[in-house]
Amino acid sequence: MAQPHTSLIRLLFLVAFLPSGPCVARAGDLWETTYELHAATEVAGEGFRIVESETTEVTTDAYGQLRVVSSGALGSWRNIILDNRFAAGMSSLRYDFRGTGEWKNTSPVGVNLDGAVSARRFHGANSASRSSYIETSGEVAALSPLPHAYPGTWGSVHSVRGVWYDRTSSVYTNAMSHWHGLALETTRDLSTWTTKAGVEHEFVPDSSELGYWGFSGSSFAMWVPSLDWLVSGGVIAAWKDYPAPGTHPDESSATLHARVTRRLNPSWSLETGINGAVLAFSPADDVFPSTRNMELLAEAKWEPGLVSTRFGAGAGMQQSPSSLADEYSERFLQAGCNLISRTSGFSDVSIRAGKRTYRHPSAAYSSDYVFGEFTALVSGARVFGVRAEAFVTFRSEHHEDDTENSRNLFITVDISRTMNTRR
Question: What whole-number percentage of the chain has pLDDT above 90?
Answer without folding.
Answer: 59
